[in-house]
UniProtKB/TrEMBL annotation:
Organism: Streptomyces roseus
Superkingdom in the source lineage: Bacteria
Lineage of the organism: Bacteria, Bacillati, Actinomycetota, Actinomycetes, Kitasatosporales
InterPro entries, per the entry: Rossmann-like_a/b/a_fold, Universal_stress_UspA, UspA
Family of this protein: Belongs to the universal stress protein A family.
A Pfam match: Usp
Coiled coil regions, renumbered to chain: none
Domain (UspA): residue spans on this chain: 5-142, 158-306
Name assigned to this protein: UspA domain-containing protein
Length: 312
C-alpha cells in the first residue's frame, strides 16, 4: 500500500496525545498521510442513533465532540504536519472500530492506556485488544512514567528487533529494517538462548553486542551463543542485502527474551516484536508471551507486527 496512512488513535487522554505526537512524527518520516481516529463516546453514538431513528430535523446534525476539537487545535499548533491529515470519528466498540480502520493502515499508534481503567495498569484493555488482532503493525507508546531517556544521536536510539531465527516471520524483520532506514539508525537484533544452570551464575549480566563481521570462530564463545549468532547472521542476510544502508548489531544472551528486550527498550527508539510464534499459536488473533510481556513492561514504544497468511 503506497499511500497507506499512519493512524493515531486518540481519546483525549494524555497517553493518547503522546501517541498522536509519535504518529505525527512517524507520518512525516515515512512521507505518509496521518489519520487521527477517535471512537465517539457512547453518548454521541446514542444521540446519532436516536436522531436517525426519529428523523427529527429540528435536532442538531451532530453531537458535540470535544475530543475532536481539542485534537484539531493541537495539530494546528504543531511545528510541521504531513501533507495529508484526516480526522475520522468512528462508531462501535474501540477495538472493533480500530480493527476496521487498521485494514487500510500502514500502522496504528496508540497510547498504553486510555481514560478508563485503573491508573496502576501498565496496558489498557483497548491497546491490548487492538495489538492482539489488527492486520497491520500496532505501535503502543507508553505513558510518561514509563518512558526512558532516548538513545544518543538525532535518531533517538536504535530500533531493537526481538528475533527467534527459526520462527520470527519476514514481516516482522522487514518492519524493523524499514523503521531503521526511515530513522537513519541501527537495527539491534536481540535473541535469547537457554543454558543449563551452572554452579556459579552471574545475575543480570549485560549481553554482548557483536557486529556480523566480528563472528570469528575462535572457540572462546559459549557454544550456544556462537550458534545463536550464526543463526541470526544467516536469517538476516537477505534483509541486509535489501537495506545495505542500515547498520546491524547482533546480540545473543542467555535467559528470558522478554527481559532482554525490556532492558534494551530503555535506550531504544522502538522495540519490534512479532505478535506470536506462527508454529505455536492457534490463529492470528493470538498474542505470544514475549510480545505480551514486552508490551506490559517496556520503557519505550513497542511495535507488535502480525504475520498475515499468504495472499492476505
Amino acid at each position: 500500500m503506497s499511500n497507506a496512512p499512519v493512524v493515531a488513535a486518540v481519546d483525549g487522554s494524555d497517553h493518547s496525545l503522546k501517541a498522536l505526537e509519535w504518529a505525527r512524527t512517524e507520518a512525516l518520516r515515512r512521507g505518509a498521510p496521518l489519520v487521527v481516529a477517535h471512537v465517539l463516546p457512547d453518548s454521541a453514538q446514542l444521540y446519532a442513533a436516536r436522531r436517525s431513528s426519529l428523523a427529527d430535523p429540528s435536532q442538531p446534525q451532530e453531537h458535540p465532540d470535544p475530543v475532536g476539537e481539542h485534537v484539531r487545535d493541537l495539530l494546528a499548533r504543531a511545528p510541521e504536519l504531513p501533507a495529508e491529515v484526516r480526522y475520522e470519528s468512528l462508531e462501535g466498540s474501540v477495538p472493533e472500530a480500530l480493527r476496521v480502520t487498521a485494514e487500510e493502515a500502514l500502522m496504528v499508534v496508540m497510547g498504553s492506556r486510555g481514560r478508563g481503567g485503573f491508573a496502576a495498569l501498565l496496558l489498557g484493555s483497548n491497546s491490548r485488544a487492538v495489538a492482539s488482532s489488527a492486520v497491520c503493525p500496532v505501535v503502543v507508546v507508553p505513558h510518561a512514567e514509563r518512558s526512558a531517556e532516548a538513545g544518543d544521536g538525532p535518531s533517538g536510539g536504535r530500533v531493537v528487533l526481538g528475533l527467534h531465527a527459526a520462527e520470527t516471520a519476514d514481516d516482522v524483520v522487514a518492519f524493523a529494517f524499514e523503521e531503521a532506514a526511515a530513522r537513519g539508525t541501527t537495527v539491534q537484533v536481540v535473541s535469547a538462548y537457554a543454558i543449563p544452570p551452572a554452579p556459579v551464575t552471574v545475575v543480570d549480566a549485560p549481553f554482548q553486542v557483536i557486529p556480523p563481521e566480528g563472528l570469528a570462530d575462535d572457540g572462546n564463545a559459549v557454544p550456544a551463543e556462537r550458534e545463536m549468532l550464526r543463526s541470526q547472521t544467516e536469517r538476516l542476510a537477505p534483509f541486509r542485502a535489501r537495506w545495505p544502508q542500515v547498520p546491524v548489531e547482533q546480540a545473543a544472551a542467555p535467559g528470558d527474551a522478554a527481559e532482554r528486550l525490556v532492558t534494551a527498550s530503555r535506550s531504544a527508539a522502538l522495540v519490534v516484536v512479532g505478535r506470536h510464534h506462527p508454529r505455536r499459536s492457534l490463529g492470528s488473533l493470538m498474542i505470544g508471551s514475549v510480545a505480551h510481556a514486552v508490551l506490559h513492561h517496556a520503557h519505550g514504544p513497542v511495535a507488535v507486527v502480525p504475520t498475515l497468511p499468504d495472499g492476505a
